Amino acid sequence: VQLVESGGGLVQPGGLLRLPCVAPGFTFSSSAMCWYRQAPGKERKFVASIGSAGRSANYADPVKGRFTISRDNTVNTVYLQTNSLKPEDTAEYFCYAPRAGVWGQGTQVTVSS
């Protein structure tokens, strides 16, 4: 099982990024998926999760109303749309498959002017 994130980068405050996580060779459509993030020197924290069919989602309070998690089971991909980015959103963002206990390698998001 492998999870591959991409889409990170440097963005100005108020900007947006879309982070895809591809899960090839994985029973993706039957698995809930999550996003976490880890800022330098801090612990990894939950950001969002989505059910296997994409009908239910949960968000951490700091990102509610700004981030949206979605998935496309036809291409084994989960997305994190990050809008209205703030400097405090700067972190390494990780995709996580809880059923398999597998983490992606992470993608860096830096919000700075």
- Please give the alpha-carbon distance between the first and last residues: 37 Å
Question: What is the makeup of the main sheet?
Answer: 7 strands, mixed
Helical/strand content category: mainly beta
Radius of gyration, taken over Cα atoms and rounded to an integer in Å: 13 Å
Kindly state the percentage of residues in helix. under 10%
Strand content: over 45%
- Tally of contiguous helical segments: 0
- The SSE order reads EEEEEEEEEEE
Oligomer: single chain
Mass-distribution shape: globular
- Mean of all residue-level pLDDT scores: 96
List keywords for this structure.
113 residues, mainly beta, 11 strands, 46% strand, globular
Question: What does this protein structure show overall?
Answer:
With 113 residues, this protein is mainly β. It is built from no helices and eleven strands. Strands 2, 4, 5, 6, 9, 10 and 11 form a seven-stranded mixed sheet that branches. It has a four-stranded antiparallel sheet with strand order 1-3-8-7, with no helix packed on it. It is globular, with a radius of gyration of 13 Å. The termini are far apart.
List the helices and strands and how they pair.
Layout: E1 4-5, E2 9-11, E3 17-22, E4 33-38, E5 45-50, E6 57-59, E7 67-72, E8 77-82, E9 91-97, E10 102-103, E11 107-111
Parallel strand pairs: 2-11
Antiparallel strand pairs: 1-3, 3-8, 4-5, 4-9, 5-6, 7-8, 9-10, 9-11
Give a short summary of the structure:
The protein has strands at 4-5, 9-11, 17-22, 33-38, 45-50, 57-59, 67-72, 77-82, 91-97, 102-103, 107-111. It is mostly beta strands. The N and C termini lie far apart (37 Å).
